[in-house]
Design brief:
With about 350 residues, the chain is α+β, with helices and mostly antiparallel strands. It has 14 helices and twelve strands. It is found in: Cytoplasm. It is an enzyme of class 2 (transferase).
Length: about 350
């Protein structure tokens, strides 16, 4: 058998809020929400001081303020957050080229082989965290494990500013007492289904045969069996040419379709912000992604005659795509995403546009 991989999951601590507190000393020690105040606003990030009151990301701003009346609202500044994210990415690149960013504030790193002479994956994680602290004045938590899903669980284990290492011989003992909700993809609905079978912990899930789980839950049952045994063969995937730029959120509570508009518009702004980095290509297609409470994923897309030219237009089109979701009005959704796809070379697109304009004039 090949030697196990050495995977890190690095996760910045309350990233957007921590950047704001770093740059504005008057915010330090206070409950901070990165969000616009208002009925249609949603919390992008919450400081640890705010989390004590139950404030969480993706929560409506009015709900957050109700939980914490002294909450300080700070408008998001994604240009600044991206600049800090690039600093952090440069630190990662000193150690490995196998970097899979998940967002501005977290990434997987494969450090099975590194560019440095550090003796272990743990030492590499410690060096990365120390460099982030020294160069950005921010803290990061890290998980070290033989695969991605374990590294992600581990990075959340000792937050904030923590490090957790799961060695191969420790995997089953580490997983056994965990509630099944700690496994990736197991939300409230799946927890309920497993609870109905008498399964509350990963250890209890591991006792069930793969065939039984697959019969009940299809391919997802097979995946559950693998996760319960600590198996995850997905490699770290370095960045590739972008096929889609998107932003998505999983909600704290499932929502009906008619309450998704403010979330869709917020995510459209976020996706558009990422799209601004694309200098050589343009996107023609708008994509709306939804995941129902029972884990069915729906996507709806539209390639309009004129490509979206602003975050507002992207949000407008994404909102109209809800009309193509043929589900009962009682259906509730645990996740929504907005994306741009259908990328073409900018010069080629402009040439086609010019040709069409000439032909119709």
């Amino acid at each position: 058998m090949s030697a196990p991989r050495k995977i890190l999951h690095i996760d910045m601590d309350a990233f957007y809020a921590s950047v704001e507190q770093r740059d504005d000393p008057s915010l330090r020690g206070k409950p901070v929400a990165v969000a616009w105040r208002g009925a249609r606003s949603v919390v992008c990030a919450a400081s640890y001081e705010a989390r004590v009151f139950g404030v969480r990301s993706a929560m409506p701003a009015v709900s957050a303020e109700r939980l914490c009346p002294q909450l300080v609202f700070v408008p998001p500044d994604f240009v600044r957050y991206k600049a800090v994210s690039r600093q952090i990415r440069e630190i990662f690149a000193r150690h490995t080229d196998l970097i899979e960013p998940l967002s501005l504030d977290e990434a997987y790193l494969d450090v099975t082989t590194t560019k440095t002479a550090l003796p272990s994956a743990t030492a590499t994680a410690e060096a990365i965290r120390a460099a982030i602290r020294a160069e950005t004045a921010l803290t990061a938590s890290a998980g070290v494990a033989p695969n991605k899903f374990l590294a992600k669980i581990a990075s959340d284990w000792n937050k904030p500013d923590g490090l957790c290492v799961i060695r191969p011989r420790q995997i089953l003992d580490f997983l056994t007492p965990l509630p099944v909700g700690r496994l990736p993809g197991v939300g409230k609905v799946m927890e309920g289904k497993l609870a109905a079978l008498g399964i509350a912990t990963v250890g209890e899930l591991r006792e069930r045969a793969a065939a039984e789980l697959e019969q009940r839950f299809g391919r997802w049952g097979r995946r559950l069996h693998e996760l319960a045994h600590g198996i995850d063969e997905h490699p770290v995937q370095p960045e590739r040419p972008t096929l889609q730029i998107s932003a998505e959120d999983t909600f704290e509570h499932d929502l009906p379709l008619d309450e998704l508009e403010p979330h869709i518009r917020r995510l459209a702004d976020k996706a558009w912000s990422g799209y601004q980095r694309e200098r050589e290509r343009v996107a023609r297609t708008v994509v709306l992604k939804l995941k129902t409470a029972d884990f069915h994923t729906l996507t709806r897309s539209l390639t309009p005659p004129q490509r979206p030219r602003s975050a507002h237009e992207l949000g407008e089109i994404a909102c109209t795509l809800r009309e193509r979701v043929e589900r009962p009005a009682t259906t509730r959704y645990r996740l929504v995403g907005v994306g741009l796809a259908g990328f073409v070379d900018r010069d080629s697109y402009q040439a086609q546009t010019d040709l069409f304009d000439t032909a119709t004039s």
